[in-house]
Amino acid sequence: MRNNVYLGLVHYPVYNKNSDVVATSVTNFDIHDISRSCRTYNIKSYHIITPVDAQIELTERIISYWKDGYGKEYNHDREEAFSKTVISKSIEDSMANIESIENKKVNIITTSAKIYPNSISYEDLSNKIFNDDEIYFILFGTGFGLIEEIMDKSTYILEPIRGKSKYNHLSVRSAVSIILDRLFGEN
User: Fold this and answer.
1) Is residue 185 helix, strand or coil?
2) In what helix (H) or strand (E) does residue 38 lie, and over which residues does it extend?
3) pTM value?
4) Distance (Å, rounded) from C-alpha 90 to C-alpha 71?
5) 3-state class of 68 per DSSP?
6) Domain ranges within the chain, ordered by starting residue
7) Which of 41, 47, 67, 102 has its Cβ near the most Cβ atoms within 10 Å?
8) Maximum distance among all alpha carbons in the chain?
């Protein structure tokens, strides 16, 4: 896998079930499980995106426990999983950080349970990632998904994950794992 992919979990701006724009809570499971998935698939860095100071402080404390506290001695694998996890106040801050590291414009890839005109298959995106020098930032929304303005800024939107039923409400950490495996898993 090329070292040109970043991942962001967006807690703001996202929709709630009434289509209001809200900030959702950072969850302990998403911090841990997505960090582990990102490390497994060699994602360059995992950005937890929230503007809420209390959420930032809590997330920093959790990560610090595993990177610097007793957790580091207790479970070295967790320390390694968090080695590329960062906290950001906004998508724009994350993009500026990535662009300063890479010296290149970032291509935003979003995920959705809907089809869009610029939807792309996993196979096509995987081929692009492995065969070009572009920088990719894959964004996952919490709550009821990323707002339309973010979707409109996307270079591509990944096709929905489809199971064998009409039910389509995976947890975001499950969706991240499935998508990373489809893009970067063994063929």
Assistant:
1) coil
2) helix 28-40
3) 0.94
4) 28
5) coil
6) 5-184
7) 47
8) 49
Give residue 68's region: left, alpha or beta (phi > 0; psi -120 to 50).
alpha
Strands 21-22 and 85-88, by their bridges, are: unpaired
What residue ranges in the chain does DSSP mark as E strands? 5-10, 14-15, 21-22, 46-49, 85-88, 106-111, 119-120, 135-141, 156-158
The domain made up of 5-184 is a member of CATH 1.10.1740.10: no
Which residue, among 112, 92, 96, has the nearest Cα to 104 in the 3D structure?
96
- pLDDT (tens digit per residue) in 23-32: 999 999 999 9
DSSP state of 146: B
Cβ atoms 6, 136 nearer than 8 A: yes
Compute the distance between CA of residue 187 and CA of residue 183 in angstroms, rounded to an integer: 10
Q: How far apart are CA 10 and CA 32, in angstroms?
A: 15
3-state SS class at 40 = helix
What are the tens digits of pLDDT across the range 108-150? Answer: 999 988 889 999 999 999 999 999 999 999 999 999 999 999 9
Query: What DSSP character marks residue 142?
Result: -
Q: Would you call 136 helix, strand, or coil by DSSP? A: strand
Angstrom distance (rounded) from CA 103 to CA 58: 31
Tokens of 74: 């207790």
Contact present, 118 and 157 (Cβ < 8 Å) = yes
**Which residues are CB-neighbours of 112 under 8 A, at least 6 positions away?**
145, 146, 151, 157, 158, 160
